[in-house]
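Researcher: Let's try something more involved. This one mixes different molecule types, so please make sure each is placed in the same coordinate frame as the others.
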Amino acid sequence: MIELHAIRKAFNQGRENELWALDGIDLHIEAQKVTALRGPSGSGKTTLLTLVGCLARPTEGRVRLAGEDISGLPECFLTEIRRRRFGFVFQQFNLIKGLSALDNIILPAYPTGRPRKQLLERAEELLARLKLGHRRAAKVEWLSGGEQQRVAICRALINDPELLIADEPTANLDTHLAKEFMAILEGLAGEGRSILLSSHDPLVTESDVVDRVVEMRDGRIVDER
Amino acid sequence: MKLWLARRRYLIDFTLLALARRKTRNLGLLLVYTVLVFMLASVTLYSHALRQEAARVLANSPEVIVQRMVAGRHDLIPPGYIEKIGRIRGVQTREARLWGYYYDAVTRANYTFMVPAQGAPAAGEIVVGPALERSRGLAKSNGISFRSYSGKLHTFVVADVLPQASELVSADLVLMSEESFRAFFDYPAGHYTDIALSVANPLEVRNVALKLAAALPDARPILRDEVLRTYASIFDWREGIVLALLSAAILAFGILAWDKASGLSAEEKREIGILKAIGWETGDVIKMKFWEGLLVSLTAFLLGFVAAYVHVFHFAAALFEPVLKGWAVLYPRFQLTPQIDGLQVATLFFFTVVPYAAAVLVPIWKAAITDPDSVMRW
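Model: All components are placed in one shared frame. Result:
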C-alpha cells in the first residue's frame, strides 16, 4: 500500500541545530494490516507517521502510495490525499474546543462538500459504534479522556479512509481505557482497515491485534517482527 | 456548482461557530470598532449635513453683494451710489439693503437687525428668529425693549417668529421696518448697508463682478459662491478640529482593534494546524478567518453608521454639536435634513473595514502556510 524508500528527514537543515530525525528508512506498509512503530522517545516514530500521512515531505527519498510517487506533490494535492485516504488520531486528540463532539467529527468532511444529511448519518453511525451517542451534543472539553479519544477516532473515520494513523494512542489513557482502545482497534482491523500506529506501550505492541512491529532507534529501523 | 455551494455553506457555518465560541473577545472587538465607526461617521455625517444645510439656505440669497469700502473697511452706501452702478448686462434686480448688528447685554449675544426687501413689519413691530424667541422667552404680540447705541430705549411688538427650517442662518435675526431701523441705529437717511444684485445666469456672475469693480473702484463685490465656499471651509475646519481632538481616542481604539485582530492566540494557531492536518486546504482556512474578520468589521461598520445616523439626525449630534456647529452665542436649534454622501460612506468603509480585514488576513496567512505536521508535536 505505502512504500518508503531511502527516506531521510532533517529539521533545521543547514543550521547549527540541524537534526536528522530519519536516516535511511526503507519500509513497506501493507494494506489491511495493523503495523506498529515501536521505539523510545526521539527514535523518529512520529516523524515517520507525518511523512506517511502526507503532513510533511521527506528531505530525501521517495514515498509511494499505491505505486504513485507522492513525495514531491504540491501542498494542495497532499491535502486532498490526506483528506480522502488517511484518518488521524493524535496523541493529544487535538479536538477543537467549544465545538460539540458531533461538530468535531464532521469537520474533516466539510471540504468534501458532501450533503449535511449524509455527514450526520455517518457521524451518528460512528458515535453509536463507539458507544458515544449520548455525548453527541456535549462540548469536547466536557468529555473524559477516553471519550475524547473515541471522538477523535470517529473524526478520523468520517471520510472512510483506507489507512488510520494513530500516534501514541494509549499514552494519555489508563490501563482500562487503553484496553478499550485496543478493543476498538480490533474491531477496525476486523473490518480489514489498514492501521499504522506508533507506540512504546507493551499493551499495544504486544497485542495480538498488531500484525507487525517495526522497531526504531535514532531514526533507523533496527528490528522487525 | 452544488459541491462548491455546499463547501461555502460549511465554511460559513464553521465561521459562525468560531465567532460564537469566542463570544467575549469578538463582542469586545465589535464594541470597540462600532464606537470608532460611530465617532468618525458622526463627524462626517454632521459636517456634510451642515454644509448642505448652509447651501440650501443660501440658495435664495443674492448672487452678488456690493459693499462700499473706505480705508479698507466696510462703509455705508451713500445716496446716489446705486445709480452709479448703471445698467449692467445680466443683472436682473438691484436692491439697497439695511442691516446691522446689535449686542444684547441681557442674553450676551449679538443679533442681526435687518430690513427685509418684501413684507417688512409695520413700524414698531419686529419679526424674530427662533433662537431669540427661546432666549428672551418671546411670543407673538409680546413687547420687547432694546437700548440703542445712542442710549435710547426702543420698544417693539413681536409680529411673528421666523420658521424653524431656516434657523441655521436666521437664529439671531430681527426683522423690522426701514423707519424703525433708521430710528434705532440713527442711520442717516438715504444711506444703506450694502447693495444686493440678482444675476440670472450663473456664468455671468464673474463678469458682473468684474464690471462692478471697474465701475466702482471703492466697492467690493461679494459673490454667493464665495460665501458658500467660506461656509464650506469653516465646516471643513471645524470637522478637522474635531477629528484632531478625537484622533488620540481614534488611534487608541484603532490600535486596540488592530492588535486584537492581528494577534493570533496560541489556541487559534493550534486550531489552524488541526484543520490543516485533518484535510482543510490552506485557502479554506484563510477564507474562513477572512470571513470571520469581515463579519466583525462589517457588522461594526453597519452598527456604527446607523448609530451615527440616529445620533446626528434624531439627536442633533448632541456629542459634537458645540464644536461642530459653534455658530454664535445663540446656538441654533434645528433639525438637519438627512443627507448621505455615497463617496463619504465608501471612504469611511475603506478606512475602517478594509484595514481590519487586512489585519486579520496577514497573521492567518502566516499561520496557514506552516506545515501541518506541527499538530503532531503538541
